[in-house]
Amino acid sequence: MKLRRLGFLAATAAAVTFSACQPKTDNSAAALPIPKLEPGIRVLDNGLKIYALRDPNTASVSVAVCYNVGGKNDPAGRSGFAHLFEHLMFKSTVNMPPETLDRLTEDVGGLNNASTWDDFTYYYETVPANHLERVLWAEAERMGSLVVDEENFQSERAVVQEELRQSVLSQPYGRLLSLYISQANFSVHPYGRPVIGSIENLSAAVLDDVKAFHAAYYRPDNAILVVSGNFDQRQLDDWIEKYFAPLVSPKWSIPQVTTVEPPRTQPKSFTVYAPNVPLPAILMSWPSPAADSSDIAAWSALDAILQRGQSSRLYQSLVYEKQIAAEVGSSFEIRRNPGEYSLLAILSDGKSVDDGVAALRAEIAKLRDNPVSAEELEEARNELLVEALRNRETSEGRAFELARSVILFGAPSASDQLLDKLQSITADDIRRVARDILDESRSVTIRYLPETPGAKGDVIVDSQTIETVKIDIPASEIPTRAQAPENQRQSPPAPGPAVAAKVPAAVEKTLSNGLRVIVATRPGLPLIAADLCVSAGSALDPKELAGLAALTANLTTRGTTTRSATDIAREVEILGAALGAGATADSSSVSISTRSDKASELFAILADVTRNPVFQEEELERARQEALDGLIVLLRQPSSVGEFALARRLFADGPYGRTPSPRSVSAITRENATSFHADWWRPDNAILVIAGDVTPEAGFKLAEEAFGSWVAPEKPLTKVSLQTEGKERPVPLVIDIPEIGQAAVLMGCVGPSRSNPDWFAAWVANNVLGGGYSARLNQEIRIKRGLSYGANSQFAQRKQPAPIIAGAQTRNDAVPQVAELMADAMKQLGAQTVPESELTNRKAVLIGAFGRSVETTGGLAGRLSALAQFGLPSAKLQTYADDIAAVTAEQVAAAAKTYFDPANAALVIVGDASVFDSELKAKRPKIERIRIDQFNLDSPTLK
Questions:
Q1: CATH number of the domain bearing residue 596
Q2: Which residues are CB-contacts of 111 (< 8 A; sequence separation ≥ 6)?
């Protein structure tokens, strides 16, 4: 399901300093060639509209069906209903048993998913191009013959309730972002009910509600079909005629939302106390324009100026200068009717909520009362235009953009027209729209605070005056369908001839200073991605300085000998480019993504931050505080607490076991960062990967100009031998967070390194266990029992033996059952040979995901960089699919016995122990228990 688009992960974000000085350059994006969305259009007699975007240069195709029904159409007392129905659409039809859609997509190397918004529900599949007919057949099946029965209804309702617990109730800011924004902003319009709904409303739903909802909204004349990718138009027309044209739209009219939210004439303010809130937050909202407003482009630019990027006004003021906020962002969502626009700040540790409100209001007033600069406006334009270009790199991205354009704006050309309009908006337009939207007299302010004994705040709930659409269809006219007997079902059509994926070849060269350069050409869109990777990551952190590699990488973008941090941010962002830095267990990196016509400017910055960081004490203090604020939030989330603990359980005090803690981060000095950079950030320990719209010759020239003068130190590179694995498997660990809304269950083992000959077999084994929706863990825990929104397993790629982690979040009372299901699945993986059909399907998942990942410039650069980090040749990119396909069932069984043995696994559970403790101990008498306030990341024992 889609939740509101707010980027608050409260992790360590890079900061910048403020400076009015920056070089003047020609950064116009007017000439940037963004491919238009120019589909073929067809309307069937039943009202279904079809839009086709052909791209013969890809090996895949995306199919999207978008229905004009969303959260605003939920019946009275049934908030969350449209989202519940989204789940039911993946179950049975007359000819498809449950999960058939997964067999037709995931099992052939594709994917499927859906999202529920306020105004629409979006379903999509991306598959190898030769499977297009099968997906069209399946979409027509669920449009015209969905089976809604009690069994499917009950199972999916349980899953949705787990999703709500996981995404909302167990997250520190889940209630604020998913519930309170809507409830506080609308008194009449059904936008006032959260799309995710409530446990109570979901529990109250009955089967007849579902049948009526389907009959009212899921019909050809209330939908659009988008096909984007590699297909033959004439063949597509034939298939549409065969599968969709026979569908009949019912005679009754479609219930429409006509409610108009009354103008807000005075500000509203709420103070709310919630459980598990590590840092206070403030949110301010205002009514926002509808999709048909002529001000959408100016509003988009206004939002970018306020909060997009490190040079934005809110980041500079609240995060950097005043250091009031740990993170800032917005809820920016275009809706068909007037909606809400929200700005949010998660405050830094110890900062006052009132000071935060005052600082946020001051920045809003500046935007209302003063024109924005020409540079700010140009930066906003470029950021939005280049983002649109990146979104259109894939058939999947183009399908969504086209569907959204039709559903929200009423025309396939609307998105292109908005991008064109961005070129002509002025500073006066921004100021006018700011005055119209950010009107203090129409604001809503929410102060979001941690629960304290005796504190009583305001209660924010769905308004009792919300007007809902009534579905009034006689029960006798609502179709009741049953699944056909197996011997009478229609089978999906056979796939067509395979279309070979195009994986660009890479060309390599080593500069005289030892820098290895890899270039992969992907012509077409004018984009380039580059990744400069250094073979030194968090595994090299000293025991008492965990977090050093990450902080060092972070600081490279916070000032050089010739550029301030703000110079860096503004030079990058005015081009619409992206610059990021970070560290993994085995490496540190700086990456860029940019327009190909601006590559030389960005490579100059990439080289500068890599070679010449100054590690100013002031910047270190800011970065440290951001990291500490991020840890405060992460240590209140069950999944992240569990991952921290499991690393210690698997690797003890070894390099892979240590985790940044408040103490270790606070201990890092400027000298530590300077020394780490001097020791490891050197050309003979680095790899530069360049991918995208660039020839090998041009790529090598960019590398030579930017990095050719980078001199390797005379001191030889230090050779390091790492011992990463813990010596023994500990007893199960429970970390008690009282009254947390949901528990995390994690079970971990140690797998092979990336260069180990067993790696491909273990990689496939992990996918069988938990590598997707159809994998065994999710089948047992979510699909069969509805105990979790999702269960999976992850296998990290590392230079040394790497962690394999199975995980799921569930109700606290279901913890013992989920733990046993995980152990049973791991045991069975090694005890029985995987059936050939299942093995073939799971290998297809890996091959398909690989093919999609190299469709984008960033994904291609990332894949090549990963190979280089592990000492593997670039040519392995070309053979990846063959290497996966060659894995046998016997190899998978051997890898499972060696690396997935539950008897050697570490079990970590994070949740409300009072609910599950006694039942868990009955099956696992030896259990260690730690309260969250005693959880110590600095100790190998976590105490």
A1: 3.30.830.10
A2: 105, 125, 126, 127, 848, 849, 852
Beta-carbon contacts of residue 352 (< 8 Å; ≥ 6 apart): none
Tell whether 273 and 243 lie within a shared domain: no
Question: Residue 412 is part of which domain span?
Answer: 268-450
Q: Is residue 17 part of a domain?
A: no
Nearest-5° Cα angle at 327, 325 to 329:
120
Query: For 40, phi and psi rounded to 5 degrees?
Result: -75, 140
pLDDT level of residue 523 (50, 70, 90 thresholds):
confident
Contacts of 64 (CB under 8 A, 6+ apart): 122, 123, 124, 125, 225, 226, 227, 228, 399, 400, 403
- DSSP lists the bridge partners of residue 124 as 64, 113
Same-domain pairing of 566 and 645: yes
Written as one string, the DSSP assignment of 632-647 is HHHTTSHHHHHHHHHH
Yes or no: say if 815 and 743 are a contact pair by the CB < 8 Å rule.
Answer: yes
Let me know if residue 719 belongs to a domain: no
Q: Are residues 343 and 392 located together in one domain of the fold?
A: yes
Q: What's the pLDDT score for residue 26?
A: 42
119 in Cβ contact with 453 (< 8 Å): no
**DSSP per residue, 132-178:** HHHHHHHHHHHHH-B---HHHHHHHHHHHHHHHIIIIITSTTHHIII
Cβ pair 4, 181 in contact under 8 A: yes
| E strands in 154-274 | 223-229, 268-274
The amino acid at residue 511 is L
Query: Is there a contact between 282 and 347 (Cβ–Cβ < 8 Å)?
Result: yes
For every residue of 753-811, DSSP letters joined together read -TTSTTHHHHHHHHHHHHSSTTSHHHIIIIITT---S-EEEEE---SSSEEEEEEEEE-
Query: Of 255, 283, 316, which residue constitutes the final position of a domain?
Result: 255
Contacts of 761 (CB under 8 A, 6+ apart): 887, 891, 892, 894, 895
**What's the domain count of the chain?**
4
The Cα 69–Cα 217 span in angstroms is 6
Q: How confident is the model at residue 725 (pLDDT cuts 50, 70, 90)?
A: low
Cβ contacts of 784 within 8 Å, gap of 6 or more:
none
Is the Cβ–Cβ distance between 267 and 442 less than 8 Å?
yes
**838 and 760 part of one domain:** yes
For residues 295-308, give the mean pLDDT. Answer: 97
CA angle, residues 567, 570, 571, in degrees to nearest 5 = 80
Residue recorded with tokens 């409530």: 198
**Same domain (yes/no): 525, 418:** no
